[in-house]
Amino acid sequence: MKKLFLTAAMLASFVPATVLAQQATPSHAATVLSGYACMALNLPAGEMMNPDIQVPIYSDPTSSSTQIGRASAIVIVSFPLVLTDGYARVLHLNGKTGWISEKYIKTWVNPGGTGDHCYPVLLSNGRIGFEFHK
């Protein structure tokens, strides 16, 4: 029993170090993605908080095409906006270009009221993200 407890305690002592090591090199915005803009997901507040409600992003501008992902609260759209058959061309956070029904997007407004704007960026770790500033 003592051996099991000591082994568990030794393993637990390594977990925080691993987590800290992963966080030791934070990513930062490397490049603003030109030709793209931030928009907001257009859902009522109750639906935004419901994990069962997911807005699909499709490979082509039709709901019968392959779903390549789900929309996040901030949607990266082609700018100027490209609309085809009621779908807007978007850039998913997984790096794939896709299409979302235009009824699910609206102008992004800073919820904090600071006047900051949202900019889609390529992060230093190669992932897509957002930067917020004036």
Tell me the helix content. 10-25%
Low-confidence stretches: 1-24
How much of the polypeptide forms β-strand, as a percent range?
35-45%
Provide the domain count.
1
**From N to C, what is the helix and strand string?**
HEEHEEEEEEEEE
Query: What is the C-alpha radius of gyration, as a whole number of Å?
Result: 20 Å
Look at the structure and give the mean pLDDT. Answer: 83
CATH class: Mainly Beta
CATH superfamily: SH3 Domains
Shape: globular
Number of helices: 2
The strand count comes to 11
- Overall structural class, as computed from helix and strand content, comes to alpha+beta
Q: How does this model look, in words?
A:
With 134 residues, this protein is of the alpha+beta class. The protein has one domain: Roll (SH3 type barrels), CATH 2.30.30.40. It is 19% helix and 37% strand. The chain is built from 2 helices and 11 strands, in the order αββαβββββββββ. It has helices at 2-23, 45-48; strands at 29-32, 36-41, 56-58, 67-70, 74-78, 83-84, 87-91, 97-101, 105-107, 117-123, 128-133. The strands form 3 sheets. Strands 2, 5, 6, 7, 8 and 9 form a 6-stranded antiparallel beta sheet that branches. Strands 1-10-11 form a 3-stranded antiparallel beta sheet, with no helix packed on it. Strands 3-4 form a two-stranded antiparallel ribbon. A hairpin with a 5-residue loop joins strand 7 and strand 8. The longest helix is centred in the N-terminal third of the chain and has 22 residues, at 2-23. The protein is globular, with a radius of gyration of 20 Å. It starts with a helix and ends with a strand. The model is unreliable at 1-24 (pLDDT under 50).
